[in-house]
Structures are given as structure tokens and as C-alpha cells.
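Students often ask why inverse folding is considered easier than folding. One informal answer: many sequences map to the same fold, so there is more than one right answer. In these notes we will look at a single instance of the problem. The structure comes first.
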């Protein structure tokens, strides 16, 4: 697989299930908003998240799969998360209609890229 590193630091935020999506949530090169039972989850630019009033974990970086694929392709997540798991790197996968994103902590980014390259993947910054 070919992957590209997103430039921006990301944050993973948890709001209450019935909270409205805040305006700051839409900022950044990558935004993911999911409402599920018990929570509203927002992934967005870390710099956009207020310092108070939001449960937030900052310091995430995103890797996006740039290899073209369609819904019939199987094993993409497994091919990318297995080498990361073997290297002891936690990953937060997020899928969109067109591709997959894999978030890793910035402190482990270099290790993650190294593990992916060792597994035969290509990563560009």
C-alpha cells in the first residue's frame, strides 16, 4: 500500500451524545464526526479544539491510504494494522467512502512509519 502523512496534528474529542457539532470541529485538513450511542466523537485539527470544556486527546497524526481501491478490496486494515501492532503501536483507523485513514500518536510516528516500510508499504510525507 501507498500512504501519505497528513501535515496537521489531530485531536480526538469526546462530547456528549446529544451535543451539537461545534463550529471548531470543522477545521483542518481531515475531519471525522461520528455520533454513536453515548457519545459524539470528533477528530479534527488539534489547534482548533478549545483548551477547556472538551474531553480531548491531542498529538495524533494521520496516515492516509493513497493506493486507489474500491469496496471489493479486502484486508487493507489488517495489512496496515498488523505491522503496527507487532511494533506495539496503537492505531485509530477511520474509513471513508474513498479510502482509509490510520491515526497514530505523534510520539510514535517515526516508529509507525518504520514498521510500515519494513512491512513493504510506502509512506510519503
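Output (designed amino acids):
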Amino acid at each position: 500500500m501507498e500512504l501519505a502523512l497528513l501535515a496537521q496534528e489531530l485531536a480526538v474529542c469526546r462530547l456528549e451524545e446529544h451535543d451539537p457539532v461545534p463550529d471548531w470541529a470543522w477545521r483542518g485538513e481531515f475531519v471525522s464526526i461520528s455520533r454513536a450511542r453515548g457519545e459524539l466523537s470528533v477528530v479534527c485539527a488539534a489547534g482548533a479544539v478549545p483548551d477547556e470544556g472538551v474531553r480531548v486527546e491531542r498529538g495524533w497524526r494521520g496516515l492516509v491510504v493513497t493506493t486507489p481501491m474500491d469496496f471489493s478490496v479486502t484486508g487493507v486494515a489488517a495489512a496496515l494494522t498488523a505491522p503496527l501492532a507487532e511494533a506495539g503501536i496503537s492505531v485509530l483507523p477511520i474509513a471513508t467512502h474513498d479510502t482509509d485513514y490510520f491515526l497514530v500518536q505523534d510520539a510514535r510516528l517515526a516508529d509507525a512509519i518504520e514498521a510500515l516500510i519494513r512491512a513493504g508499504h510506502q509512506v510519503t510525507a
